[in-house]
Amino acid sequence: MSGIVAIVNPVAGRGRAGRTWPAFEAALRRRGVSPEVWYTAAPGDAREMARRARERHVELLLVTGGDGTVHEAVNGLGPGGPALVVVPLGTGNDLARGLQISPTPEGIADVVTRGHVRRLDLGHLETAEGGRYFVNVSGAGLDAEVARRVYEEGGPGRGALPYVLSMLRTLRRYRNVLMEIHVDGRVHRHVSLMTVVGNSPYYGGGMHILPGATPDDAQFDILLIGDLGKLETLMVFPKVFRGTHVRHRLVTCLRGATVEIRSREQVAVHADGEPAGYLPVRYRNHPGGMAVVVPAGAARHAAAASRPPGEPAPAHSPKAHSE
Ligand SMILES: Nc1ncnc2c1ncn2[C@@H]1O[C@H](COP(=O)(O)OP(=O)(O)OP(=O)(O)O)[C@@H](O)[C@H]1O
Fold first, then answer.
1. Which residues belong to any copy of the DAGKc domain (predicted)?
2. Of 59, 81, 172, 210, whose Cβ has the fewest other Cβ atoms within 10 Å?
3. What is the ipTM of this complex?
4. Distance of CA 271 to the CA centre of its chain
5. Do residues 213 and 303 make contact, with C-beta atoms less than 8 angstroms apart?
């Protein structure tokens, strides 16, 4: 078989995806596009459906939902496979935000009929729990602890607010830890609130955590956040929404293709906001591993497009202790 399949997670965006998908399908049909529609019934289905779509040599795979659904789909596909069209009807939609995809029926019909394929880097991480791919951002430390809590308390339809509330609760008891971060063979040791590794600029429903990230440069952007106290963390946190946290003296931006993080402490790891085990973690990038259809006029570099007007690209400053 070839053709177009649409995976639809009806509970994404607190049910918005299920409610509004028929309008998207109608807009596609008006343009002569008739996808085969597969509704997910439970967590994990999008992964299996994507695997099946790949086996059947589907040409175009629409993934309707939020970042969790996209995360599942790419884990079913792995590097290669059909081109994805993200129909961003979740609560966060961080990948689509970076790619300037408009969540309207006509916007998606435009992407399908007139968009172009962009090959993005696909991140992969490995912990003792196993390996998995991620599309946006992974990390170890406070944010992973927060993600674990949100996941345990959550369910679908999460968005930014539960992350913010959980961050405040988690921070009260959180203790910074000594981490050893290997980036392309260089070792950085520091006491860290958290370390972030990713290909795309956004996570957590609009937090501009890696403002310099370019999703197709074959490199991870890496943020080493040093030994921030609790009060200082609370003061820096709002800046994450504008991406200006990277100017803080205890924040170091790096780039690299292979990353490994270790610690003697038990430190949680997340992948696209899903719990992914504990340190040690090893990252490797698959350049161009994910084909995504983007709008015809989309800016080449999503990071540049998403930066506030007048905001310079963050300097990459290897300040942490390295050897
Ligand atoms: N039919 C279903 N019933 C319950 N859960 C489902 C179903 N289909 C998929 N899921 C789960 O729903 C979860 C949430 O989906 P998703 O993350 O796409 O939406 P969201 O949380 O609204 O958006 P975002 O992640 O962008 O904030 C996924 O982790 C997936 O495993």
1. 1-129
2. 172
3. 0.96
4. 8
5. yes
